[in-house]
From TrEMBL:
Gene3D superfamilies: NAD(P)-binding Rossmann-like Domain. It comes from Algoriphagus aestuariicola. InterPro entries: NAD(P)-bd_dom_sf (IPR036291), Sc_DH/Rdtase_CS (IPR020904), SDR_fam (IPR002347). Pfam families: adh_short_C2 (PF13561). It comes from the Bacteria. This is SDR family oxidoreductase.
């Protein structure tokens, strides 16, 4: 029980990586504040992990009051707050030709600014418990794919924020801030996104080595397993660190000769 007695907010925890992290946190002994936009999915997750272990808050993460509401729910339901997992994000295609000011601002609001505001709101409680923040970024923060421009910009900003606050908050408040950058993960949304792009039902099976040297992409549960180290006391004083979770190096990789496309 590596998280026994801890209270953790996990944003965007109705599906995918966030859901897997929330479930793993409860399995490790934590109480969790679930969060998302889809009430039916949130209540479904709540039913899976049990109302004695979690509470669900349904609200757009980018609204003005959401950060304060999430912290209030944690305090009211469980009496304290030990950690925040900033997982909620908007993953949407865009490029230099179709990204306008309003679109880019919305992406930044959800993926970069809202995580900062939640950290800011939660800081007094996290300082009391000498808690931590785990930001869920993306390997696209390093440069991104051609059609993930706005998303990549937002995750790059999140990564810089992690480095900055990871240094400042551990010194001034005893609060650690770290980040995981997942690679390509087989979430429910990713399955549907690729189908909407015209790929087959089984697009994730038999992927070319250039995309998946191991023969498959990552599972949400594998990201969740890695998150427990950063949320637990096992990581000690480590702060301001960003860890890429992918099956090949993002910088300086030796691309395989097989460059066939996904079918």
């Amino acid at each position: 029980m590596r998280l026994k007695g801890k209270v953790i907010i996990v944003t965007g925890s109705t599906t995918g990586i966030g859901k897997a992290i929330a479930k793993r946190c409860v399995a490790e002994g934590a109480k969790v504040v679930l969060h998302g936009l889809e009430e039916d999915l949130g209540l479904e997750v709540l039913g899976e992990i049990g109302e004695k272990n979690a509470v669900f808050h349904c609200e757009d993460i980018s609204t003005d009051r959401c950060p304060a509401n999430l912290v209030r729910v944690a305090e009211k339901s469980f009496g304290k707050l030990d950690a925040v997992v900033n997982n909620a994000a908007w993953v949407v295609t865009s490029n230099v030709n179709n990204t306008d000011r309003a679109f880019l601002q919305k992406i930044l609001d959800v993926n970069t600014i809202s995580p900062f505001l939640l950290i800011q709101e939660a800081l007094p409680q996290l300082a009391k418990t000498k808690g931590c923040v785990l930001n869920i970024g993306s390997v696209n923060a390093w440069s991104g794919e051609p059609n993930l421009l706005a998303y990549s910009i937002s995750k790059g900003g999140l990564m810089t924020m992690t480095r900055n606050l990871g240094d400042v908050l551990i010194r001034d408040h005893g609060v650690r801030v770290n980040q995981i950058n997942p690679g390509w993960v087989l979430t429910e949304r990713e399955r549907e996104r690729k189908k909407e792009h015209g790929l087959s039902e089984s697009w994730y099976e038999g992927l070319p080595p250039i995309y998946a040297p191991a023969g498959r992409i990552l599972w949400p549960e594998e990201i969740a397993a890695a998150s427990i180290y950063w949320l637990s006391d096992e990581s000690g004083p480590i702060s301001g660190q960003v860890v890429d979770l992918e099956q090949y190096p993002m910088i300086g990789r030796n691309a395989p000769k097989d460059t066939s496309t996904i079918k």
